[in-house]
Design goal:
By secondary structure, the chain is mostly helical. The protein is 76% helix and 0% strand. The protein binds protoporphyrin IX containing FE. The site of protoporphyrin IX containing FE (HEM) has 26 residues, from helix 3, helix 4, helix 5, helix 7 and helix 8.
């Protein structure tokens, strides 16, 4: 565990965790005011969006798995590329970002230190698979970055790599602050690089769906549905990092 992390003890009572974390006060002292009702509605909306994101992640990963395996094994360069890129970006990296969201189903009960651990393990695995998938296709081609699909993929590769390195400086932000590196600044850049990398990968995926080989396998209507799923999951997943980004940047300006 990096030394800058405070290990919060696990709380057994879910209702107490909910009331104190989300509404800011212990259950007994909650006043019945309109504000907490608004908060309650917002929490329900965010939990529902989280569920929707998981449905879209499952549909995207599942359909791409079927597409990549449509001709059986062994996999050619393009199917292997699709499989690794989608599992890396839209499954593992998506779950890595979601793991830090307070409304995420599987991680909401984890201690903060374990959420961070899950985040960097998933992020490392996801980036590794996604970059490997990209390089397999790059090695398979002779002319590069001649399509919008490839160009957005290049943006995602650059930002994913930078965000990965920057993730380490965020993990050790406290230690680096001794060298006059602002902890908030390295976290802010990590968030923004991560958002751009993930969003660019989703745009690249949509251009991938638009290719004749996918359209002829999936049909036009189903391709439109898959593009909508990719758009929806990307939008839902980047909401929380955006909120964190604005909160942290407000803090940065207040401190200066
Ligand atoms: C997140 C998902 C994806 C990423 C990050 C990605 C990334 C890439 C990259 C880096 C290249 C090489 C570009 C170049 O060297 O010019 C490429 C090419 C290619 N990809 Fe993908 N890809 C993804 C999904 C897909 C999907 C779903 C298909 C489905 C058919 C697909 C089919 C192709 C094809 C046919 C090429 C060669 C033609 C071209 O460059 O446009 N990819 N992809």
């Amino acid at each position: 565990m990096p030394p800058n992390i405070v290990d919060v003890p696990f709380q057994q009572d879910p209702e107490k965790v909910y009331n104190e974390a989300e509404l800011g006060k212990p259950a007994a002292s909650q006043p019945a005011v309109a504000g907490s009702q608004d908060n309650y509605i917002l929490i329900i909306i965010q939990s529902t969006l989280n569920l929707l994101a998981h449905v879209c992640i499952g549909a995207t990963a599942g359909v791409n798995l079927l597409f990549a395996l449509r001709n059986g094994l062994p996999l050619g360069a393009t199917p292997l590329h699709v499989l690794l890129c989608v599992l890396g970006y839209q499954l593992l990296m998506a779950e890595a970002i979601l793991s830090l969201s307070p409304h995420n189903g599987w991680s909401s009960r984890l201690k903060f230190v374990d959420k961070r651990r899950a985040h960097w393990i998933l992020q490392l695995l996801g980036s590794g698979l996604a970059l490997a998938g990209c390089f397999i296709k790059i090695l398979d081609k002779n002319i590069h970055w001649d399509t919008l699909h490839g160009q957005f993929a290049l943006v995602s590769m650059v930002f994913t790599t930078v965000s990965l390195v920057n993730g380490l400086t965020s993990l050790y932000a406290y230690e680096l602050s001794k060298f006059r590196l602002s902890p908030n600044l390295s976290k802010l850049t990590h968030i923004i690089f991560g958002i751009v990398g993930f969003a660019a990968a989703s745009i690249s995926l949509c251009y991938g769906y638009d290719k004749a080989q996918f359209r002829s396998w999936a049909s036009d209507n189903f391709t439109t549905a898959m593009i909508s799923f990719a758009g929806a999951l990307t939008f839902i997943i980047i909401i929380n990092p955006f909120i964190t980004f604005f909160n942290k940047s407000r803090g940065l300006f207040k401190n200066n």
